[in-house]
Amino acid sequence: MSKGAEINLHDYLKKYFGFDQFKDAQEQIILNVMNGNDTFVLMPTGGGKSLCYQLPAVIMEGTAIIISPLIALMKNQVDSMRSFSATDGVAHFLNSSLTKAQISKVKEDVSSGLTKLLYVAPESLTKEENIDFLNTVKISFYAVDEAHCISEWGHDFRPEYRRIRPIINKIGNAPIIALTATATPKVQHDIQKNLDMLEADVFKSSFRRHNLYYEVRPKIQATKEIIKFILNNKGKSGIIYCLSRKKVEELAEALKVNGIKSLPYHAGMDAATRTLNQDKFLMEEVDVIVATIAFGMGIDKPDVRFVIHYDVPKSLEGYYQETGRAGRDGGEGKCIAFYRYKDIQKLEKFMQGKPVAEQEIGRQLLLETVSYAESSVCRPKVLLNYFGEVMEENCNNCDNCLNPKEEFEGMEYMVNVLKVILEVKEKFKADHIADILAGKASSGVKAYSHHKLEIFGIGKDKDARFWNGVIRQALIARFINKDIENYGLLNLSEAGHNYLKNPESFMISQDHNYEVSQDSEPATGSGGGADSELFNILKDLRKKIAKELKLPPFVIFQDPSLEDMSIHFPITLEELQNCVGVGAGKAQRYGEEFIKLIKTYVDEKEIVRPQDMVVKSVVNKSGLKVFIIQSIDRKIALNDIAESKNMEMSELLTEIEAIINSGTKLNLDYYIGQVMDEDKQDDIYSYFREEAETESLDDALKELGEENYSEEEIRLVRIKFMTELGN
To answer: Is position 690 within any domain?
Structure first.
């Protein structure tokens, strides 16, 4: 590269965009495009991808065709380009949102040579009239933005993206630059192969974003957690992602009633409302957007301070790109995801009915998300490993680094994992290997007679979940590879073979287990904030009262209620009712001794109580509770109540449990008598009365036997028990 070219390029950078310096590899990428070479750019969100095609487009002769997936994204990019130029004609988009007159104006500006960047959706590109028009235009190069949309293994697959190359061949040849913020090696290969640019020069920036903080919390009272988090970060911009439109609407409403300036955004809204909501967010008229993943692609808002995932994402690529919208200015960016395995199972259910290959891909991508969420290893390390990048040091800026799990010597475990993979000829996935190690004769293991192997059950003192964790850490240590082409089969790397020959100390940390009983609902997701000394004193008081009344302690107050008391220090019965799971009935019946104890504790310790933060419910929610209570009073069958509200039976039982845990009495005898015989009822009732140490459903199923009792039956009798003895 000559000195002259370098100075010239810097002059253009200053002239058109006002910057003095290029970021990372931007300069080399731009020169590569200008030299007529195919170029593949892998750069994290906020790394400056757009400039890589914007600058060469304004310098080179002709018009650059920018292929982009979203109308909102095109508008954003065109507005941005026009703000750098003296004329609006410098950038246009051509898509279905334009009128005939507007289309004529665009074509006129392009033909006259005024337009340097023409943004088109792949669908618009395939229209014959547009192909005919573009045949008459001098094209400087093609830019394929969000190129991961080409790959079925990418997180936002768009079939029409796979038709880009044939259309380019029809219009006329010119260099291609493909750009994406997320691509595993598999997705990268797919993109290059599909665009017929396997020989392209590849520019890959590090995926490491030092300013982003990553955390995974158990999905327990997530709405309340989110409201607390936002109120503690007043005035900061944030995005919350949910998977369903219904949840987007509900959550946006819940934020609003709690005084948070927020708006929803999803594909079910009309385009004008969506655009208006997006603009209000960009103009800082609202602080928070609650959205499905339709929001945010290419949104150039540099000061998004937090990205929260209410629902677990379908893939790590999607997750990485969405979190990448935080802190693009290099400032603070908090990325918090709420996780429970139940959501993964729900997503797997949605996949049923799709072609088998698509289901298999979807399942693989979900497993990677589970691995990320449950791993206790440095979060960026896991993410970077997924994208094929090795990170040596821990980040010291994620929940796992700041609250590390205790490590233990794992040499023997690691050796056993590698041995089993070799024993089954490197032809099986992680779950299968974990089952063999744990001595679990699952249907898959039996199908291959692997339960007869000598090595079967070599690690049966640990469960399959533990072994899956060791396998994850073997992947990060690069001892094993995952063959993504074959749906995740594991094989040993050279380093793995060397480790087997010469094993040495290898420290392992226990994975997270976020499966807290869903019905026990602890008060906080992060576990921080509670006064542990007070919590233990309250537990002793609960035990004392339970003994006097000959009741199990959880009937008095459940742990989440005590935890909330040791955060908010309630000293009146009214304040006590603001704690999770404490209604008026419970407060009246058991509250006096608890508030008396808390008041003494507060006085003795001279505690300055925090301003009580009451998270207000959305009216509809309490409306539902009233409807349920009235329907039960009228002895309407529970399945009819569920059907009338379009709910699953399990969802209805969760609502009923919340009602009785707050102290309201409900009599379900009329329904339980219809669906269960008396002996069954008595067995379950006496289990909770005499044997149960906690209200856990899993423990009850284990003790009573899953073959004899269904989860629904146990929940029904547990509701009867709690309402009769607890309220």
So the answer is: yes
